[in-house]
Structure formats: C-alpha cells, structure tokens
Amino acid sequence: MLALSAERRRLWTSARVLLLALMTLGAPGCERAYESPAAPWSDVISVREPLVLPRQLHAQRVSVGHANDYKPNLAALPDGELLLSMSEPVTHSDGTYQENMVLYRSPDGGQTWGSRQVLPLLGREPCFSVLRDGTLFLTAQLLSTDYRNTEGYDYALVYRSINGGTTWSTLAIRAQDVPGVEAGTPTHTSRNILELQDGSLVMGVSAGSGTDYLWRSFDQGQTWNRAQRSRVEGYDVAAQGRAWYGEMVLFQARDGDLLGIARTPADAVPPYPDTQIPAGNEATDRMVLFRSRDTGRTWTLEESIGDYYGEMYPSLLRFGDGRLLFTFTVRDLHAPLGVRAVLGNEKSDGFSLNFGSDPIMLDDKTPLDQQSGGGFGNTVRFPGGLLATAYSYRGADSDTHVEVVRWVLPYYVTVADAWGR
C-alpha cells in the first residue's frame, strides 16, 4: 500500500540509527518498554525486509490449552485482566459432534494462565469486543453439525457480560429474527461489535447471501434496533455465495465514516496487479475494504487490502496517537503460514497500512508440509507498551496448538511516514 523509493529507504535507515541513539539516551516521546526482555524472553519474532524495525524483536511465547484447540482471540479488560477464548472440537463415541467454547484468564499480561473453563455457551470461533465501560461481548456461530443445534441450520449467537465474563446473557439470531428471509436461512454477524463515537453500538447481521442489516443499540447492547437494511454498491454480494457481514471487522474513521474489512473469495474482485487469481478453495480468499458514509445504509467497495491471496482474519489495534497495528493470518499460498502484523496510520477518512516493509512474523511455526492451523489471532496492548498476540498453529504432529506471544516494539517511531502515513 505504501511504496518507498530507494532514496526514502536510505533516509529512513539513517533516521532509524538516530532514533536508536535517542532511545539509548532516553529521548522524549519514546515510550519506555513494559519490561526489560531478560531471561524469560528467550524467543524472538522475525521481521522481514526491515526498514524501521530491527530484524528480530524480543518475545516470550506461552503455550495455553489442549491439543486441537484452535482459533484463539484475546480481550484486555479495563482492570488489566487478559481473557483468551478458543474453540475445542469434540467428536463423541456415538459419532455426535460439538464445539466447546473455552476460556482462560491471565492476571499478569499473559505470562501465566488460570484454569481451563469450558463455558456453558454454544458456538464456535468466539471473538471478543470490549466497550469503553468494560462491557464485554462474544460473537459466535453454531453449526448445524453440532448436535446441540435444534434449528437444523447455522445461526449466529451474541453473548454479553457486564462482569468481565463471569456471567453472560445470550442473543440468538435465527432466521425469524431477520426481516424478510425464509425459514432456515443461515445467519451470521460481523466479527466485532463496534462502539461508535456517539456511544451507540453497531453490528452487522447477514442472512444467507444478499440480505444484510446493520443493527444498532443505544443501551450498550441490551436491545437492538434491527430495521436498517444495508445495500452494497460495486460488488455482487449474492454472487460471492456467502454472508457479506459474516467475517467483517468494523471500524470507524475519524471523520465518522464506517469501514468494513471483509473476507471475500479470491475471484470476487479484480486480481492484484501482475497476478493470476488462484483456483480454488476458501484458504485462498483475500481481504477488501468497504466504506459507508451514511452509517451503514449504503456501502461501496473501496480497495483490496494486503499483499496477496490467502490473507484473512484481520484485526486493527489503535495506539491512541494515530498509529495502528494491523494483525492478520496468512492461510495459504505464501509460506510461512500463520499470523503476521504490519504498521499503519490513521487518516481523517480511514487508514493506510505499510505492507511494503517490516512485516512482523508473529507466528511461523506451521511446518511447510502442513496445512494452516487456524492462525486467527488478534493483538492487544497494555499500559507501558506490552503487546500480546494469540494464534493457533499446526504442529508436525498435525494437531493444532495455541500460544500467546508477548512482545514489545523496541522503540516507537515518532516520524509518521515510517508507519505508513
């Protein structure tokens, strides 16, 4: 997204040396590290094509969960507690199948994790959203193949907690809850519930492929206005054959526009420059950006995001001063598979991301002869600069395994262009 000339690259190499020197002297504007990466920080994260960052970042990797847990997601609560959710597939001796929703808690930024809790909640691939007041949400999907599903089709579930996940209320979104759709139509929600600048909440809801609504709440998610239909211009939602809001991550630009980062089939939009669209399977999907200037009534296709096909499961982390960290999964085509991150900047009408340099290889553990182990993970930040990212990978044993990597950026670049502005 940001092309850097050789001259700019040379200038930034010089600037990086100067910034390192300033950091050594304790320069103003360079935030102190969360902790000194000493003995327990024995792992590293590699950085490819480094321009701003060093070639390696100090890290600590902590294994969590059981074999075949997968697709973890993190939430940092206002009191500093860290929550980790994940899915656990279970096939019983009688052939019935279910996916458990698993929760772990950490009081110390992910260094240690408490006991395993299988939540009394239905659904798979749980994703957190945390409001400014600490209200917590989990979005999930209950498959028709789960023996506890009595509807006979996939449908969405949204869970809400006002006590840090100790207890939950449940919102099931079935076909009859979406206006104008036939009985038995599968439903999906956006991955996240977005708190807007005015304090209201929005959540994307899709039924089948082509029936899309943006639900809105004015009471922190206790009730939802379900009347607003969404229309998409410049993109054939029905032709993609899946729920449009189904894996979307919502984001609000500073100027108030709504942005949606969506996973789409590889052939749903024009190819990346100088590439051929891969034949294929869902692991070759890609990310594109949609924009709404009228609070979700009308959406337009904006642009492709990323470097190549096979990239998905995005999350955006705001640093509070206009800088962003964009975390995503490489699921196919350009190994190593796993979770990566790139730097970016907010603009008044959105953001820019720097895929041209400094890709941070947060997880590259899946062997080259294995398929994707999920990836999926997001990144959260703690006061003082500590970052934590969750991911699942497939080991040489062909099982999936979950880890949380704790890491810090060794200095914060104070010149905007280095972050992609």
Description:
The chain has 421 residues and is mainly β. The chain has one domain (6-271, 280-419): Neuraminidase (6 Propeller), CATH 2.120.10. It is 5% helix and 40% strand. The chain is built from 1 helix and 27 strands. It has one helix spanning 6-24, and strands at 43-47, 56-64, 70-76, 82-91, 97-106, 117-118, 124-130, 136-142, 155-161, 169-173, 187-189, 194-195, 201-207, 211-217, 231-233, 249-252, 258-264, 286-292, 298-305, 311-318, 323-330, 338-347, 350-353, 360-361, 379-381, 387-394, 400-407. The strands form 6 sheets. Strands 24-1-2-27-26-25 form a 6-stranded antiparallel beta sheet, with no helix packed on it. Strand 22 and strand 23 form a beta hairpin. The longest helix has 19 residues, at 6-24. It is globular, with a radius of gyration of 21 Å. The model is unreliable at 1-6, 12-39 and 413-421 (pLDDT under 50).
Summarize the structure.
The chain has 421 residues and is mainly β.
Multimer state: single chain
Poorly predicted tracts of residues = 1-6, 12-39, 413-421
What is the top-level CATH class? Mainly Beta
Proportion of strand residues: 35-45%
Task: Find the structural class using helix and strand composition.
Answer: mainly beta
Question: Spatial order of the strands in the main sheet?
Answer: 24-1-2-27-26-25
CATH third-level topology? Neuraminidase
Main beta sheet strand tally, sense and closure = 6 strands, antiparallel
What is the residue-mean pLDDT, rounded to a whole number? 89
Number of strands: 27
CATH architecture annotation: 6 Propeller
Classify the helix fraction into a percent range: under 10%
Number of helices: 1
Instruction: State the end-to-end CA separation.
Output: 10 Å
- Tell me the count of domains: 1
